[in-house]
């Protein structure tokens, strides 16, 4: 059987601006992106905005962040590891993530 | 009877970042903001993204843009005139609208 990636990730050129903004327009998702920007890589559990978030909600947030080209999820042993697609995203939407993160931090 | 404004506009400090991003995360609304950024003032009809948009949809878009502190709507004779609250918005979210508009234009 050929290798099948568990998650799919879009080419950034296929991500429309409104999807990128929609992915960032949620305090939980934005918090996850800000944490990944500061931490480089996080398991799905560690990426969660709080311990009490339902697994399906967390999974949906991660899925939307992936579909917007913001994060990459890869398997590492038994863990799923998330990283920010910072370079890809910055190349597609210059200055956008910087502006959003700067305003999120205030 | 005291003067009652027909529309209310939030103080920008009361607008959360996620609401601002949500308001911009729609191609029709973003197009209206981009047009206002280029045109200074537009009637509601002229601000519409297309002629076929239902009046209630247009009204909801304008209402959301107002609630996010992006536009001001004032009465001028029989017309409602929309302007971008550019300075207010830029002071609250430095660099954000510039980054979004630059990416919308490409």
From TrEMBL, chains A, B:
SUPFAM superfamilies: Winged helix' DNA-binding domain. SMART domains: HTH_ARSR. InterPro entries: ArsR-like_HTH, HTH_ArsR_DNA-bd_dom, WH-like_DNA-bd_sf, WH_DNA-bd_sf. Pfam families: HTH_20. It comes from the Bacteria. Residues 9-106 form the HTH arsR-type domain. PROSITE patterns: HTH_ARSR_2 (PS50987). NCBIfam families: HTH_metalloreg. This is ArsR/SmtB family transcription factor. It comes from Sphingomonas floccifaciens.
């Amino acid at each position: 059987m050929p290798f099948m990636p568990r998650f799919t990730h879009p080419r950034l050129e296929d991500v429309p601006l409104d999807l990128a903004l929609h992915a960032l327009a949620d305090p939980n998702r934005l918090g996850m992106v800000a944490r990944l920007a500061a931490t480089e890589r996080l398991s799905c559990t560690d990426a969660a905005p709080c311990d009490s978030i339902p697994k399906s909600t967390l999974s949906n947030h991660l899925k939307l962040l992936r579909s917007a080209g913001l994060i990459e999820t890869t398997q590492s042993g038994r863990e799923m590891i998330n990283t920010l697609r910072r370079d890809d995203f910055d190349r597609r939407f210059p200055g956008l993530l910087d502006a959003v993160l700067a305003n999120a931090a205030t």
